[in-house]
Batch of 2 targets.
Target 1
Amino acid sequence: MIERRRLSSWASDAGSPAERKIIFSRQGAVVRHESVPMYWRNIPQYYRLVAKRCRQCGAVYFPPALRCRCGSAELEDYDELPHEGRLVEYTVLYQVGTDFLKQKPLIVGLVELNGGVRAVGQIVDAQPDRLAPGTRVELVFRRVAVDGRHGLIMYGYKFRPVQP
Amino acid sequence: MTRVGVVGWGVYIPRYRIRTEEVARLWGDDPQRIADVYLVNEKSVEALDEDAVTIAVEAARIALRRAGVSRERVGAVYVGTESKPYAVKPIASILIDALGLRNDILAVDMEFACKAGGDGLAAIAGLVEAGRVEYGIAVGVDTSQGEPGEHLDYSASSGGAALVVGRDGVAAELEAMYAYASDTPDFWRRDGSPYPMHGEGFTGEPAYFRHIIEAVRGLVSKYGYKPADFTYAVFHQPNGRFPLRVASALGIPMDRVKPGIVVTHIGNTYNASALIGFARVLEMAKPGDRILLVTYGSGAGSDAFVFRVTDVITERQRAPAPAVEHMLRNKVYVDYAQYLKMRKMIKLLE
Amino acid sequence: MTGVYVVGAALRPAGRHYGENIDDMAAEVLGKALADAGVDIEALFVASSTTELVNRQQILGAYILESLGIDKIPAFRVECGDGSGGAAVTAAYYALASGEYGCVAVVGVDKPNDVLSNQQVDVYAAVMDTYFERYFGFTPLSHAALMAKMYLKRHGYKYEDLAAWAVLMHERGAENPYAYFRRRVKLEDVLSSEYTSEPLRLYDVAPLVDGAAAAVLCRDRRDGPRIMSVAVATNAVPFNMRSEYDTLYSLREAAARAYKAAGISPRDVAAAEVHDSLSIFGVLAVEGLGLAERGGALAALKRGGLRVNMSGGLKARGNALGATGVYQLVEVAWQLVGREFKRADGRYGVVHSMGGVDRTSAVIVVGL
């Protein structure tokens, strides 16, 4: 016999009293899951830091803006921002929202990308005590939020320390 | 006219590792015996926020950077995996947007157990040879499944490899290829099952060994190679023993097989297994070297490829992109509890 | 010159009011404020941040008026996140100053305790940029922590200096009958509390509380403290692209305008309520209002005599989100006349109400 053991059904124990209790307590008015079109339309920014750059003065906007501070409305896609930079400051966040409960603590870093544009991103694959302002970081592509067991998996940029 | 071949490669291995002895500790096995049987010392583990998609993106980004190919020139992206986060929803289309590729290209997910990544290479090589695309990216990636406490728990690991295939700037020309497949049920995973079933010893002689040996023998006899022609031979690596044994059966000296064996350090990355070994060999190859690459997928089939390394290899080896050695070296060990959490094997209410 | 006066007010003690619906809780405090003022109102301004997210209620004003049986008058909702209160007072002020109405009421209400703690984080995170901050898991707390770290480093302070804020707020809250926390704490309690987002600890984070506050404002009816000026300013620069992280830009702008319009200077301020949803924001608000020099708020705190947040601030009274700014207005007005609070030593008070991480600030100058 090749099939040595039977796999139990993974759905069979759904609806146990403990599970029902937790599911009940999670039912609130709070809108928990991301809108799919919202995620979809921001994919260029989430996946590869597509910014806007002013055709007149060269100023770069991330998140993208519609009008430059110089007054020009001629902004073009800047696809894409540099993937390397340095940490300006960071914090370790312990109080997190529902989508991040199983990922806590989150390291949240303000990063200055090469060229000067800054972005705030989660810092992953890192030990907080080895981080400091100036730490070199690189962009990585990671899961950001997962809409339960059946919903959409949403991806986006994060940063991690560059290993020598 | 230059031949189609590999223009650039990229490997991504998650940073986390679990030692064989830690797995053995949990399941009451003798760690020494396990290590001896599988020749696997530790295996890679993806972070909680990683999956086959994120690993594929990282490997492909590195491959494109190494190839120096602009993303507008990529005409096909093929992803081979058996760890799709979705049963229905492709990875290849995510790669288009993550890499910023054109939208009017072929984007395909493929499945043939552990062989699909290599099949992408074969498919793209054909498209390039036919002049239908200029460059294509073939990705083999997995966050391999293995039931906790079962044999596969000692080897199933996570990683990805991407190859940029084209005709311009080729670092390793594709000289020959040969395929062999049959209905041999050595390993499978049913729709909805979290872990594969396998036939233990049955995965060996009738499956892995028969198909690889037939593919290589077919290749050798059709194209007239001798075992001594191959500077390096890289095989699919479900464990450390199988590639050594199959090389021995094919009369290939051990010193030509060992450089391409990565399973000892990172475990079996399924669709990335042979391709990561191939990439590692490319990083040490010299112009004129000949590399035999043999994939294997359960169920069962094997593709054998022969590459001839060109002068371009030196430039590619020096390209500013992370090397396989870098990925192998940078690691953080986790215990079994962290491993379960990272691999999403703790049942959560969602 | 026309004047707008605070002629009546009422507060609901901040807490966990599990037993009441949001409209009833607001109606109860509004009814008390109306009785306190003894006037009829011609319009209602509702300040609420989370009625949709927490209570699935819109047109909240209509349901509040239904509870009180007040017919026909218009009810407007003003939403600026946790800065809704200050913005609603500002809107009410303008409605009176325009000459359209003679008396209006502002009621602020929110019930964050109707949802679980993690959902409160989700709800509060809606004041962040939903696409580029909230999506990635960032909250007011994470960004306040980044600012705190940079502020402390830049101005040569230790965390212990910042921890003194919570100690002072708890001391003040102990004297405020409407406060959620009415107990003093020691510096060691703050220093030994858990990290919430380092360097910030539990005591640096104001508790989210259910709360309701109401004020009745009338034009040209000299029957209470006068609203001398109002000003609201927005910071249009995303957090990641700001040039300075140790200051509240929206507050500095609003404060300059409000002081100028009121014809007073920070030296004239005898009572101030600032938005310390996170301790560092309270510190930066003290500086933004000119009550301490740039980088000097924690030194002033150490020296003592900082007359800010006699209510205990958001830290001790509680962060009632959209209701907070209305609480603050009432607290400052009452401090100026010595009602419920010790009488302030001067004629002018100032309110700072902020939405998000320095996204919008309202400054209201109140005088006798």
Target 2
Amino acid sequence: MRRGSIVQLVLLGVLFGGGAAAVALLVPWLPDPASEQADRIDFVFWFVTTICIAIFALVAAVIVYSLIKFRARPDDDSDGPPVHGHTGLEIVWTAVPAILVTAISIVSAVVLARNDHLPQASAAGPKDPLKPLIVKVTAQQFAWLFTYPAYGNVTTSTLRLPLHVPVDLKLKSLDVIHSFWVPEFGQKQDAVPGLDTHVVVTPKRLGTFPVICTELCGLGHALMRSWTTVMPRADFVKWANAQKKATGGGASGGATAAGKTIFVNNGCNGCHTFKPAAANGTVGPDLDKLTEAAKKAGQPLDAFIRQSIVDPNAYIAPGYPKGVMPETFASLPKPQLDALVKFLSGGSK
Amino acid sequence: MSGAVIGFHEHEAQAEHSPPAPPPRGIHRFLAPGWLRTLWTIPLFFGIGAGLVVLIRWLETWHPIWPGSIITTVELTTVPLGFLVGIGGFDYWFRYASGAPTAPEDHSGHGAQSWKDYFRINTDHKVIGIQYLVTTIVFFVIAGLLAMFMRAELARPGMQFVDNQTFNGLFSVHAALMIFLFVIPAFAGIGNYVIPLMLGAPDMAFPRLNALSFWLLPIAGVMMVSSFLVPGGPFAAGWTNYATLSIHQPLGNTFFSMAVQWAGASSIMTALNFLVTIITMRAPGMTFWRMPLLVWANFTTSLLVVIATPFIAGSQFFVMFDRVMHTHFFDWTAGGYPLGYQHIFWFYSHPAVYIMMLPGFGIASEVISVMARKPIFGYRLMAVSLMAILVLGFSVWAHHMFVAGMAPWLRVPMMVTSMVIAVPTGIKVFSWLATLWEGRIHFYTPMLFALGFVSMFVIGGLSGIYLAAVPIDIHASDTYFVVAHIHYVLFGGSLFTIFAGIYFWFPKMTGKMYDERLGKLHFWLTFVGFNLTFFPMHWLGLQGMPRRVADYAPRFADLNLFISIASFGLGASTLVFLYNMVKSWRFGEPAPANPWRSLTLEWQVSSPPPIFNFDEIPQVVGNPYEYGVPGARHGVFNGERVHEEEQVPV
């Protein structure tokens, strides 16, 4: 190989490498990280990007150089030199990529281990609910529910998290597979029916970020969104304690409270309006008007409510599509179902 | 090898001595194999299917006695069988199995004199190859149109043209058709046409099986498309059809489960045929180390198909049983295991990525070597890396499941094996580059597509490294980044090589030259349209747009509109291709036997080749890519045979 062609090749390589680097640096490829995990993911991303730019520059330079230099004229019937191979070169391009991918694997494995790590409160000291904060995430078609066991099982449909506190999100699905993702947190985990999964997030930036379902879960998959708000630690504790007081600490406050808890915990408020539960969802029919709806369906109120929960497609309120309301509530335990029916019929009388 | 020689003489003798039987007349036209016979065999088998269901339910006193969805499920097996029986897929074997005298092989089912011969059971691998290619291009166009509908919906946020269920159906059917009815069988079609010619064989090892495996394919395609007509809409759980979503889907889902069985059976039978053909029907002197790389590629692909495809068949049967027969393979409420589905599914579907890629590697090697006028660089390492991909391909499936909730310890080993696959793939890319180096490069359309493939596949391969690295994958999985990645691999990779292969062998297949100017126009429109459509998707995914959604955050609106416009241009570029193919096939310049001055055997016979490929048996005396070696030959024919010690007596 002549010296001139090496220079030209290197120049082309620098050109393509520089171009690719410009594309990589000038475009904001990743969301502004809002968790310590996302910072580490970004590090792996840039580590891989550096290697990829080098490989891309090499390949692009050789292709473009060849296309320019070795272009044959249409009437040129000659053949190229009969080179069959070069053992040294073949060893190099087997060994170098092997080393590079090994390096990427090691970096990835280390980051993965750190991102999975969950600092535990020491067994001896006083129990701190924020070390780590445990949040139960319940996914179902097509809503998210977040429960805080350390605060009397307060349940909300948006996620609130304290800043700089490691959070263990314990995921559960009631029907099909969903996936929890907050792009700014970088972390993602499927919620699988019948399986307990979890993911660790340590928020490091205040703000409100989208919660997105990323596993196709049916009709309303694109609508299965919520929000997460990262708030200062003290504000979070204040909010959580206030919520705990307001909901009476769960299902222990009589039949109405039990029915209300079941209503909220199962995410009914995500889709339905119902004043006694302070619910104002608009996806499904307005449950404050259950009495009229039962009349329209020609059924006694309680029977109508029960049927609508366990077999939602048996009667579809006019103007609403079939198959949107999940059928999974049929599997509610009988006492809970009874309480829920009572709560709903009581509210609309 | 001697088997091939004997077979050759048999073919020749019978072709000369037994004239084809006269065409049937009158009522016999309804009894002879063909479309007229399907007119009564399809209703007959429909009756058998429905009758079986009704009989069993009547005997068991189940109600209702006429359950539409169950009968439909059974009919998806029996009606296609009726079609195959009618068209004549089983005639010879029926007679053989029942002890009836089999019709002497008069080769009337071989070759094509008119267009009608492409619409019947035909045992000629060249006819079958073209049947495959035309059929797959039809489904390619349909699947492409579905993508256009999707992009129309995605041009603006919110819902405009379709509802959610339809949209889910659009991308599910698009992907299923592209994978099972286009990429995989299009490669089978090119292989079918070219491989016996490359090996110096008169046909595939099992021509009747070959014909049958083709006719399973339109069945699968029609089944997938017709799911749009079913109550409840088409299958809409993605081509991945994940349980537990799929077991609660409407009837259309069964159409996917069953179509995959037909396409899979077709795939397995073709792969067996390729394996036996490649192992037993090589011409004298064609050792494994003298086989062209396309043959090597189809050999490894066929091994992947026969080992892996039964797994997707199993996964879809399980889903269907859960849906129809109330089994609980994946139903967690009854003790089923939802993740089991994904393990079985990806144990096929990751190797399937290589099923969709390795034949493309083979085509690229053929085209690049011939059009750069140089021997392929590192031929043996190229073949060995194919085998390495084959073996490694079975050890990486769970990299699709890094966020799926599987055992956490499984992630790092699966990452390492996935990373290691980059090594043999890298060897191939670098060897292609080294083949170009100091070549005499001719930029005909196939070469443009082959080089387009190499450069796009490098980008797809590099984005694959991101997805193999677990922490990045956790962020990027199930987003548009993945959509971008698979299209760089399957569109920029597989589809570009399919186009390269079609243009490259078009003169051989049709005897006509394609229009070079239109070919180049097609390439540039496709290349530019492809990059404008799919490159921005990387950004969308990393920023937070999940895949498989009909609606998205307003901040992604402008880029999605841009992508939609680019995709319409990309779709329109296909019209140039279709026009070129139809026009050139009909009115093109007659093609010489060897327009590319290639050394491999298929170019040493006329275009199109004689009915039994070789009027005399070629003898292989050297390597297939000896460009630039003075006086080098790959194959020689009887008249000019050189004497080698290993020569097999003819």
